[in-house]
Amino acid sequence: MEKIDLQYSCILVTGAAGFIGSNLAKRLLEGVPGIRVIGFDNVNDYYDVRLKKYRLKTLNCYEDFYFIKGDLADKEAVFSLFEQYHPKVVVNLAAQAGVRYSITHPDAYIQSNLIGFYNILEACRNYPVEHLVYASSSSVYGSNKKVPYSTDDKVDNPVSLYAATKKSNELLAHAYSKLYDIPSTGLRFFTVYGPAGRPDMAYFGFTNKLLAGDTIKIFNYGNCRRDFTYVDDIVEGVMRVMQGAPEKKTGEDGLPVPPYAVYNIGNGHPENLLEFVTILQEELVRAGVLPEDYDFESHKELVPMQPGDVPVTYADTSALERDYGYKPSTPLREGLRHFAEWYKSYYMNMSDSVQA
Description:
This is Protein CapI. InterPro entries: Epimerase_deHydtase, NAD(P)-bd_dom_sf. Keywords: NAD. Pfam families: Epimerase (PF01370). There is one protein chain. By secondary structure, the chain is of the alpha/beta class. It has one domain: NAD(P)-binding Rossmann-like Domain (Rossmann fold, 3-Layer(aba) Sandwich). It has helices at about 20-30, 50-60, 75-85, 100-105, 105-125, 160-180, 200-210, 230-240, 275-285, 320-325, 330-345, and strands at about 1-5, 10-15, 35-40, 65-70, 90, 130-135, 185-190, 190-195, 215-220, 225, 230, 245, 250, 255, 260-265, 270, 300. The model is unreliable at about 350-355 (pLDDT under 50).
């Protein structure tokens, strides 16, 4: 593994207005001396743009944060950015997310996740970087029956277009690593949650509906199990991976052995969805988002599995532990408590939040 010193370096974070990207940028700016972070994002309206602007407002307080609004599918914009800043490390978190949205809006996934990622790879080839780190997803495991999911498992059975694009990213990165000796590491994230997260995620949507007095649907009759991973744990994992790139080597044929790796980042402890919702409700009551006498039973409905979903996600993180000495560990209740407290301060005091 090649050690990379991030101090006094220029780092590109795509998807900087997004959930993970904004948290990573903040952590870099606060924790690494002399760093410059270039944030790139198209700030699209897949979900409430005010939330993205809220995250960017926090980042704009740092004098070493530079934000560029642009689209990864715009090759000229991407190349211009690389030519101007020559980032040392690129963390590509920009993507069209969501399993269900990919069923109704496939074009967005091809543009962002395939063409956009190709443009990043081309830029890394033409303006060499020391390490490309990019977001993959636990969705690539598709219909695999074996759990926990290991990066040694075959992932040839995607059950959504979103998953197929993420698997394609891994294949493209491998090809570019082999052809052009670009050190690249893919990270398969497992159900990330936390304050200022994505409103399309279940915990966020459940909260909105419970507060509105609507009924929430719990799929697979509550028998889904998810490896919920707190956002700070994800960011810590990304930080560690950024600083250790796959080593460049020459094979017996005299050609480069691709400096390529893929890791899971998950909590390694799948939670039953019904238990998850119960803890969420308790923490929402504790934070004052819901009243103490809230009738939870009358606001939930157990329904069948929906297309594109899988019954369980569960990460084998042994490779991450072996190579980087790290394993996510934030308990679910602690993470949901932080979310509930943030939700109370943001949404229930909306007048103090970003409205522009």
